[in-house]
Amino acid sequence: MTPNNPVLQTMAATPIAPGVHAHSIIAASGNGPVEDSNDGVVEYSSSHLAAVDSEYIVRSTHSTQSNP
Predict the structure, then answer these.
(1) Cα 13 from chain centre
(2) Residues near 34 by beta carbon (within 8 Å), at least 6 away in sequence
(3) What 8-state DSSP symbol labels residue 52?
(4) How far apart are CA 48 and CA 62, in angstroms?
(5) Fewer CB under 10 Å: which end of the chain, C or N?
(6) Average pLDDT for residues 3-18, to the nearest whole number?
(7) Chain Cα centroid distance, residue 44
(8) Per-residue pLDDT at 67
(9) Could you tell me the end-to-end alpha-carbon distance of the chain, in angstroms, rounded to an integer?
(10) pLDDT for 66 beyond 70
(11) Cα Rg for the chain, rounded, in angstroms?
(12) Half-sphere exposure (CA, 13 Å, Cβ side) for 8?
């Protein structure tokens, strides 16, 4: 999806519902600071959601599902 995709824009603007426990799994390549990282496609700053209960960083590239 491109950043201007209407579905992606709507999802990004939709808040997490009260009472829902949300968690993030974010891929980050390399061993540098997470805040400056990306997965080769998406920047950490674009993936990070402040409202989640937890955030797990996987040191991997964008297709992290192939890196169990």
Answers:
(1) 15
(2) 28, 44, 57
(3) S
(4) 15
(5) C
(6) 91
(7) 7
(8) 67
(9) 24
(10) yes
(11) 13
(12) 7
Cβ-count burial 45-59 (b if 16+ within 10 Å, e if not): eebeeeeeeebeeee
> How buried is residue 5: exposed, middle or buried, by Cβ count under 10 Å (0-12/13-18/19+)?
exposed
CA–CA gap between residue 3 and residue 5 (Å, rounded): 6
Q: For the purposes of burial, counting CB atoms within 10 Å of the CB of 67, is it exposed (0-12), middle (13-18) or buried (19 or more)?
A: exposed
Amino acid at 45: S
> Percent helix, strand, coil in the chain (nearest 5)?
25, 20, 55
Token representation of residue 9: 């824009």
Q: What is the mean pLDDT of residues 60-65?
A: 87
Cβ atoms of residues 52 and 23 within 8 Å = yes
